[in-house]
Write a structure and sequence with these properties.
Blueprint lengths: L1 H28 L5 E8 L16 E9 L5 E9 L4 E7 L2 E5 L1 E9 L4 E10 L6 E12 L7 E11 L4 E9 L10 E9 L5 E9 L4 E3 L6 E7 L4 E10 L6 E11 L2 E12 L5 E7 L2 E3 L5 E9 L5 E9 L4 E4 L1 E7 L4 E10 L6 E13 L3 E14 L4 H30 L1
Parallel strand pairs: 19-26
Antiparallel strand pairs: 1-2, 2-7, 3-6, 3-8, 4-5, 4-7, 8-9, 10-11, 11-15, 12-14, 12-16, 13-15, 16-17, 18-20, 20-24, 21-23, 21-25, 22-24, 25-26
């Protein structure tokens, strides 16, 4: 009897253990999905992520979601809640509309598999650099959970700004002198920041002795400079003839829409050129009809640099002709040299004071062709011809003779 009772207890114990084990196996066979965000990056390739910057349009934000559970996640949807500085827009009836959330459908995600949600976003121009937290909602169902489940996750979304610096500067011609026109100034700009610079326009601020060669020639539109990229801006400027030699700081500004800031200062060098003055010009007066009159002009180099292959030319206008050029060679600093011209004056030249230009052309620093113009005043007087003088003398003689005859005739009458 006791043996039978023990056997009965043993059978019941085995049966109970079997039921418990079968229940556990059934429970294990009903899996649970588990969605987690594994990566967030800008762009479409996780191996080559991009950066997003203020002013970006149509930037793609990718969010990779992995099913780390052991069952399918059914009807998965991902909703990204937007906040400043991120926007998303769509058009309806040609009108633009902004939305505060974007939902993407992933469908079913098997256990151990992943899905990449991609959102096309804009970033406002005045956005600050930093990492922003955006709310990301995942909704899905499973075999055990027929009702929809929602999980809320905050994802880190970075925005990086560009940082512009002047890398190098060049000019054409390489050496710039007072009076140079249409000087091409090329500035190379590098973006050393982590983000891009968008809608970029640069502006070169010019003050005396500089000015833009034409309207807008001190501005340049570049567009977008990505991180580590180098862009160039080209300007055309004129230099005042009276500019003093030396180094001048020029401010280069950046405009990103309404945002203006200083990129840096450009050190612009104006080289010294030979400076000439007229210390003597003889003669100062001519007569209409003069031919081959020797006209000498003495020049002095008042600068501190020498002028080579100096050639002078008298730009005297229609009334003056003859040999109007001369070659003076090298004129050193402080040295004077005299140019000689043979001048013919048109006989019909009205008497007057005429201002003519003495053009000076020379080579400086071995291969730079420079020039200057200096004014000279020439006085032209009327030439009285010998015929006119003879007529005047004849009239005077006749007048004297008539006076004498009258005096003698008066005397004859008185004596008779």
């Amino acid at each position: 009897m006791l043996k039978f009772k023990f056997l009965r207890i043993l059978v019941l114990t085995i049966a109970l253990a079997s039921l418990i084990l079968n229940g556990s196996m059934v429970k294990a066979q009903v899996g649970v999905p588990k969605l987690v965000v594994s990566s967030v990056y800008w762009g479409v390739n996780p191996a080559i992520p991009l950066t997003a910057s203020p002013g970006d349009k149509g930037a793609t934000l990718s969010i990779i979601v992995v099913n780390a559970g052991d069952d399918f996640a059914r009807d998965v949807k991902g909703t990204l809640m937007l906040q400043s500085p991120f926007t998303c827009e769509y058009y309806s009836n040609s009108e633009k509309h902004l939305i505060d959330s974007v939902t993407k459908v992933a469908g079913d995600i098997a256990a151990g598999r992943s899905f990449t949600f991609q959102y096309t976003l804009n970033i406002v121009q005045n956005a600050s650099e930093g990492v922003y937290k955006l709310l990301f909602k995942l909704t899905y169902r499973s075999a055990r959970m027929l009702s929809e489940t929602t999980e809320t996750i905050y994802v880190d979304v970075p925005i990086w700004k560009g940082e512009l610096h002047i890398q190098s500067v060049s000019t054409n011609p390489p050496k710039v002198y007072p009076g140079n026109m249409q000087v091409a100034l090329t500035v190379f700009i590098i973006n050393s920041g982590l983000g891009s610079v968008n809608n970029l326009k640069v502006f070169l601020e010019l003050n005396e002795p500089f000015k833009a060669s034409s309207t807008g020639s001190n501005e340049a539109f570049i567009g977008t400079i990505r991180s580590s990229q180098v862009a160039q801006a080209r300007f055309l400027i004129d230099i005042n003839e009276k500019a003093k030699p030396g180094n001048y700081p020029l401010s280069l500004y950046a405009f990103e829409e309404s945002n203006k800031y200083l990129i840096g200062l450009i050190s612009f060098t104006i080289a010294e050129k030979a400076s000439f003055t007229i210390i003597e010009a003889k003669p100062t007066s001519f007569q209409a009809g003069d031919l081959g009159v020797a006209f000498k002009i003495t020049l002095k180099n008042n600068g501190s640099v020498k002028a080579e292959s100096v050639r002078v030319k008298l730009l005297a206008g229609n009334y003056f002709s003859g040999t109007l050029t001369d070659f003076l060679g090298t004129i050193n600093p402080g040295e004077s040299k005299t140019a000689f011209f043979l001048v013919d004056i048109d006989g019909k030249t009205p008497p007057n004071s005429y201002t003519v230009d003495l053009r000076i052309e020379w080579i400086q620093d071995e291969f730079y062709n420079l020039n200057d113009n200096l004014p000279i005043v020439i006085n032209v007087k009327w030439r009285y011809s010998m015929v006119i003088i003879a007529v005047v003398l004849a009239i005077a003689a006749i007048a004297v003779l008539s006076f004498i005859i009258k005096r003698k005739g008066f005397s004859f009458k008185k004596s008779s």
